[in-house]
Amino acid sequence: MKLIKGQVFSIQTKIGFGFFQFIEVDSMGVEYIRVLNIIKDSTEIKQSEIDKDQKWCCGFPLNIAHRRKIVEFIGCYELPKNYKIEYWTRSPHNVQGKHFGWHIVHRDTLERKLIPKLKRKHLLLSPHGVSNDTLIKERLEQNWELKKWR
User: Considering only CA atoms, which of 80, 62, 68 is closest in space to residue 9?
Assistant: First the structure.
């Protein structure tokens, strides 16, 4: 399937269907998605639901997941008018179980900055790297939020 910006897919979880929207293939060749802030009993979705803020964004092997029937194509929708792609992400910097701070990472250049403590502006940065379907399902089922990820 040829991916087109705005395509929406569903994934089944224990608590209902989660949704995500394809944004782009980044400079590293990774498919980048918005994980939408919606869990529903059916796969019907409206543009007004897509226009709400996302839970987070992440790399995800969308084409492979679709080919393996892990996700289901729902339709093409517009990205929210106020949506701006964030190129900075974050990941915890832990060594041998000890937390040393956070890496703030640019998705395209992989420029990395280590900060000891997150500032308010960093709380909405999405996780760095590529997620799999199991991790996305678990996070959706646990109502995982960026603001609480410290």
Answer: 62
Tokens of 108: 């395209």
Can you give the pLDDT of all 150 residues of the chain as single tens digits?
899 999 999 999 999 999 999 999 998 899 999 999 999 999 999 999 999 999 999 999 999 999 999 999 999 999 999 999 999 999 999 999 999 999 999 999 999 999 999 999 999 999 999 999 999 999 999 999 999 898
Task: Please state whether the predicted TM-score (pTM) of the whole model is above 0.85.
Answer: yes
Can you tell me the distance from the alpha carbon of 63 to that of 140, in angstroms, rounded to the nearest whole number? 20
Residue 110 backbone class (left: φ over 0; alpha: ψ -120 to 50; beta: rest): left
How is residue 130 annotated by DSSP?
B
Nearest to 136 by CA among 12, 2, 24: 12
